[in-house]
Amino acid sequence: MRPSGRAPNEMRPVILEPGYAKKAEGSCFVRFGDTHVLCTASLEERTPPWLKGQGKGWVTAEYGMLPRSTNERMRREASAGKQSGRTQEIQRLIGRSLRAVVDMKALGERQITVDCDVIQADGGTRTASVTGGWVALQQCVAWMMERGMLTASPIKDNVAAISCGIYEGTPVCDLDYAEDSTADTDANFVMTGTGGIVEIQGTAEGEPFSQDELSALMGLAKDSIADLVRLQNEAAGLK
């Protein structure tokens, strides 16, 4: 039995609330159970210097956790003078995931930055950030199209993410902290709406896992991400 009482293939309640931040071109407040992340998408009419003059844009991401998003206060990374390796790794994952479904030439010489700020953490903050970040990005693109800045959307597909793992010998999806902290295997899956694989991060915390167990986790991830894509489209007002 999972600590939450959920079935192995049952996600936590997922809520995607678009338009949460009024001043951002795009935003989404995403909840995976008790994991809450505010995702905002900000448009800049410029590209990174290394892309200047190439006729294409860029999508990037930043990630951070508020001091009391965890059980005990975390020190702000700004006060430490540098980002942790974990933070850098997660924001690079978010950026890669979003760029995988964007036509940079269609975006033009512009940059969209997706900021993911963790308000409350209970496992799966990076996967929630990818899932909510896509909704914020979609809103930003819709904002641009409404103003005639784009004639067609540069977003080619959905992208969403879910954590899966082996908990007490059973493959399960959407690990919360109680499961994540004691799981035998922990994995994150990033996939597109059409089933393409963007990234898989998997680690055996104890005993190595088998190919059959990996296949079981992949099946759970595929089904969960299909549900998340449906929720993304509903939040973004797409069919």
UniProtKB/TrEMBL annotation:
GO terms for biological process: rRNA 3'-end processing; rRNA catabolic process; tRNA processing. Residues 10-139, 158-223 form the Exoribonuclease phosphorolytic domain. Phosphate binds at residues 86, 124-126. Pfam families: RNase_PH, RNase_PH_C. Its EC number is 2.7.7.56. PROSITE patterns: RIBONUCLEASE_PH. It is an enzyme of class 2 (transferase). It catalyses: tRNA(n+1) + phosphate = tRNA(n) + a ribonucleoside 5'-diphosphate. Keywords: Nucleotidyltransferase, RNA-binding, rRNA processing, Transferase, tRNA processing, tRNA-binding. SUPFAM superfamilies: Ribonuclease PH domain 2-like, Ribosomal protein S5 domain 2-like. InterPro entries: ExoRNase_PH_dom1 (IPR001247), ExoRNase_PH_dom2 (IPR015847), ExoRNase_PH_dom2_sf (IPR036345), PNPase/RNase_PH_dom_sf (IPR027408), Ribosomal_Su5_D2-typ_SF (IPR020568), RNase_PH (IPR050080), RNase_PH_bac-type (IPR002381), RNase_PH_CS (IPR018336). Signal peptide: none annotated. One of its GO terms (molecular function) is tRNA nucleotidyltransferase activity. Belongs to the RNase PH family. Phosphorolytic 3'-5' exoribonuclease that plays an important role in tRNA 3'-end maturation. Removes nucleotide residues following the 3'-CCA terminus of tRNAs; can also add nucleotides to the ends of RNA molecules by using nucleoside diphosphates as substrates, but this may not be physiologically important. Probably plays a role in initiation of 16S rRNA degradation (leading to ribosome degradation) during starvation. PANTHER family: EXOSOME COMPLEX COMPONENT, EXOSOME COMPLEX COMPONENT RRP41. Homohexameric ring arranged as a trimer of dimers. This is Ribonuclease PH. It comes from Tepidicaulis marinus. The gene is rph.
